[in-house]
Every structure is written in structure tokens, then in C-alpha cells.
Write a structure and sequence with these properties.
The chain is α+β, with helices and mostly antiparallel strands. 23% of the residues lie in helices and 31% in strands. It has helices at 9-19, 24-31, 35-42, 50-60, 64-67, and strands spanning 86-88, 94-98, 108-115, 120-123, 131-138, 140-145, 148-153, 157-161, 166-170, 176-183.
Length: 186
């Protein structure tokens, strides 16, 4: 039995509108959907047409499917370890497991990283203002972002600009693990 509920389109619109710091008046002007219609949709008193949803999503600068997302009864989204996509650094010295849900890729990326001894991950610049937060689980790392660098020990977290070339480097002769959060502020 499917325990998911129908999409709370109105609630989703209201949430995204508030996240963007947009008033209902502003959303109405940007979308071409009347304020009274937006109010009825947000209160779940009416169901919008596909065209209306498209106009609202464009005004919010988000994909339409974001407005159609449903919440499961448990409200907990789980990505099982065996279902997480895996990729490697170019030289295969770093295994990277993707832990972030696909629908969040525009805002947040989560990575569980395992480095071979002396392994290195060299990254090109990400989007403007992107930041990374690297937490060392085991080992010792050197992080270089542009002209800056820092040494991180077990338990340390480093925050740095990721909109420039950056390198994460295992400084030990042992396998080392780190957790990486990449944030794309809007």
C-alpha cells in the first residue's frame, strides 16, 4: 500500500515563496497569476492548472516538479548505502559516495569520501559563492582553495570557498575518510 499523500502544492508554493523572501504580491506580479488565485492555491482551496503551476515555478525560479513533491507519512527520506551513487577522482585515489537526494542538487550536495594513502581530489571551481565544509573522520588532510590552505586533523571541519580551484589531500600513509558538504547559496 502506498503511504504517500497527494502533493501539498499550495504548501509547497508557500514554502518556496517564503524561502525566496517573496511576498504574495511579488509572486503574483512575477508569475502573472492573480494574488487571489495564489491565496486560494496556497490555502489548498483550489487546484492549479499545469500552466498556472508552470508560471509560478518560473517566477520562483525552481523546477515545476518541486511544487509537486509529496511527503511520505513518515516524513523521513532514506537513501540506502547500496543505492548511493559512487564515483572516483580522476586518478582513482578517492572514492566518493553521493549521499544527497537528487532533488536537492541545486542547493546542497553531501559526500562520504574515502582517500587512498596520499590520495588527492582536485576540483575545478563550482558555481559562484559555492562553499564546502570538509569534516575529517579519520586521518589528516590538507585543503587548498585558491591561494589559501589549511591542515585538518581528525574531528576538524574546514569551510572554504569552492568557486575557485580547490584540492583535498590525504597527508597520511593510511586510508583516510572525510565527509564533505557542498552548499550553493541562492
Amino acid at each position: 500500500m502506498d503511504k504517500r499523500q497527494p502533493p501539498a502544492i499550495g504548501k509547497n508554493i508557500a514554502n518556496y515563496r517564503k524561502q525566496k523572501g517573496m511576498s504574495m504580491d511579488e509572486l503574483a506580479k512575477r508569475s502573472g497569476v492573480s494574488k487571489s488565485m495564489l491565496s486560494q492555491i496556497e490555502q489548498e482551496k483550489t487546484n492549479p492548472t499545469v500552466v498556472t503551476l508552470w508560471k509560478i515555478a518560473n517566477a520562483l525560479n525552481i523546477p515545476v516538479e518541486y511544487l509537486l513533491k509529496t511527503q511520505s507519512v513518515s516524513q523521513i527520506e532514506v537513501l540506502r548505502r547500496d543505492d548511493a551513487p559512487i564515483f572516483y577522482s580522476e586518478d582513482r585515489s578517492c572514492l566518493i559516495r553521493v549521499n544527497s537526494p537528487v532533488h536537492m542538487i541545486d542547493n546542497l550536495e553531501l559526500y562520504d569520501m574515502t582517500f587512498k594513502p596520499r590520495g588527492k581530489l582536485h576540483s575545478k571551481p563550482h558555481f559562484p559563492n559555492a562553499e564546502e565544509f570538509l569534516t575529517v573522520i579519520t586521518g589528516k588532510f590538507k585543503v587548498t582553495a585558491g591561494e589559501s590552505s589549511a591542515i585538518l586533523n581528525e574531528g576538524d571541519t574546514g569551510r572554504y570557498k569552492a568557486d575557485r580551484e580547490h584540492i583535498i589531500e590525504n597527508l597520511t600513509d593510511q586510508e583516510a575518510k572525510a565527509y564533505l558538504v557542498v552548499w550553493f547559496p541562492q
